[in-house]
Amino acid sequence: MTHSRAAVALAVVGAVVCGALVATQSRINGELGHQLGDGYLAAFISFGSGFIVLAVIAAVVPSTRRGVMTVISSIRAGRMPWWYTVGGLAGGLFVLSQGLTAAVLGVALFTVATVTGQTLSGLLVDRRGVGTMQPKPVTTARLVGATLAVVAVAFSVSPQIQGGIAWWVLALPLAAGLGLGWQQAVNGQVREVSGSPLAATFFNFLAGTALLAVVLGIHAVAAGLPDHLSGSPWLYIGGLIGILFVAGYAIVVKFTGVLLLGLGAIAGQLAASLLFDIVLPVAGQQIEWTTVVGTVVTLIAIGIASIPARTTRR
How far apart are CA 261 and CA 13, in angstroms? Predict the structure, then answer.
């Protein structure tokens, strides 16, 4: 099915907004982890609180409850693969990789690794197609746009990149980025089957919370947990924000495909991060001109990757 350019453009805007919400959640969860002194617990609270909210919604909202039951019955009847419902594992892996490698790599290299993985998975998943998502050709415009986006992100964080990092340390965040593209594709399929973006988000949070519960349990045995929760109440809304952008992704991926969705989300994250640095600066950090240029170039990359295949052939 071919969607109109206006519908695709509107969906890309939606992806950018969702990316901005991701940056917002990251800032909140990062501060919560700092306040608690435990990033693992902060990640579990974010996922777990979101899952609890979605469980309540599924219990009281008929359309969401029907969507959840439709997915379960579709799996039992063999109409949908069960692994469509575990896309949240990729979100859990992303959060886990933050805790394990971001401190070693630094935020800059971590970001480059995950963006590279996300962009590659966008190309691969679009090329093959998933469920009702038809395959999209790997055109010159899409390749140029994807490459330009990765280069723009690397350039925007280049002042923060430190040398002397072993290449294998990049493997986990790269794998996490690859998983994000797959996550967006399968969540979109669950939304198609269920007819409810909140039902798709419910399964996403269920899988991610289960993974992080196991990781937190191992972490608690090895290092213990904080004696009590701390921080302002607004630091505990990361799960609610996650519900918004996961549901948003599940809606717009039908129109954008995985690659354009990923590029829009990356642009939104960069733009929102830049805005946060201006409005709510972190002590000891300054705004680099490379971040501004990288954000603008990423927006240009979206435009290039959006060029229809027939235009590229001409």
Answer: 9
| SS3 call for 24 | helix
Over the stretch 232-260, which tens digit does the pLDDT of each residue have?
A: 899 999 999 999 999 999 999 999 999 99
Distance CA 34, CA 215 (A): 19
DSSP string, 221-275: HHH---SS--S-GGGG-HHHHHHHHHHHHHHHHHHHHHHHHHHHHHHHHHHHHHH
Q: Give burial (CB, 10 Å; 0-12/13-18/19+) of 192.
A: middle
Cα–Cα distance measured from residue 32 to residue 9, given in angstroms and rounded to the nearest whole number? 35
CA distances from 76 to 37, 57, 82, 150 (A): 43, 23, 9, 40
Instruction: Confirm if 19 and 264 have CB atoms less than 8 A apart.
Output: yes
Q: Are 292 and 277 in contact (CB under 8 A)?
A: no
| Mean pLDDT of the 288-292 span | 80
* CB-CB contact of 40 with 233 (8 Å): no
Average pLDDT over residues 147-158: 85
Residue whose token pair is 């039951």:
69
Residue 115's pLDDT band (cuts 50, 70, 90) = confident
pTM for the model stands at: 0.88
- pLDDT surpasses 50 at 306: yes
